Task: inverse folding
């Protein structure tokens, strides 16, 4: 029996499923409202509710503070966008350096490996202190006065590029070696094979873990 002309038993099953779904939605809404009402009236009955309301739920204070909160949100977004772009670029460069096989690039591999190990082992708060107080403390006149926003972006980039580079490196190494050999057999140089063959496949593989890192970055920016 086709879907366009279901049997009587199938029609009864569909009606029963629709009714069961509606019943489940109604029960879920009622139970949620009952629980919310119970919590709300329980809070109102506590002796210290008025004091807590004055500190944390004062509407007048919220309205007065909204412009500053909005300015902080815009600052958060500016720092997040700038740091995310720099982290992507710097992390990808570190990953490429770590996958270079030619002995000529041994110093780059060692430096990138040391960088990743160092900044993955340092807590972000330490990097923020080192950058935020260390760079201004050097009093390098040619740099002038660096805004704290820029210093925060530098610290976030230094830390998160180490994590993101490992994600990119895993994606690059996950591409089967035959892809690289096929690109070279077609006459593509290493940079072209990396740009046209390897990286498109690698980036597609690492989008989910990259999103995890950028969610963590957004939290640390806030």
Result:
């Amino acid at each position: 029996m086709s879907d366009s002309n279901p049997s009587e038993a199938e029609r009864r099953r569909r009606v029963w499923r629709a009714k069961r779904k509606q019943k489940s939605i109604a029960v879920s809404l009622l139970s949620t409202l009952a629980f919310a009402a119970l919590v709300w009236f329980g809070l109102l009955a506590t002796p210290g509710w008025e004091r807590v309301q004055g500190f944390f739920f004062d509407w007048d204070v919220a309205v007065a503070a909204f412009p500053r909160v909005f300015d902080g949100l815009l600052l958060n977004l500016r720092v997040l966008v700038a740091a995310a772009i720099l982290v992507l670029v710097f992390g990808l460069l570190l990953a490429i350096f770590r996958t270079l096989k030619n002995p000529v690039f041994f110093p780059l591999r060692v430096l990138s490996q040391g960088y990743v190990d160092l900044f993955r082992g340092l807590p972000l708060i330490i990097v923020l202190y080192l950058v935020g107080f260390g760079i201004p403390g050097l009093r390098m006149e040619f740099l002038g006065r660096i805004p704290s926003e820029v210093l925060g972006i530098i610290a976030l980039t230094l830390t998160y590029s180490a994590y993101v580079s490992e994600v990119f490196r895993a994606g690059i190494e996950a591409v089967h070696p035959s892809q690289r050999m096929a690109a070279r057999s077609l006459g593509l140089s290493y940079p072209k094979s990396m740009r046209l063959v390897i990286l498109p496949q690698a980036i597609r593989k690492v989008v989910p873990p990259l999103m995890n890192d950028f969610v963590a970055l957004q939290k640390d920016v806030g």
Remarks:
- DSSP finds nine helices and no strands in the chain.
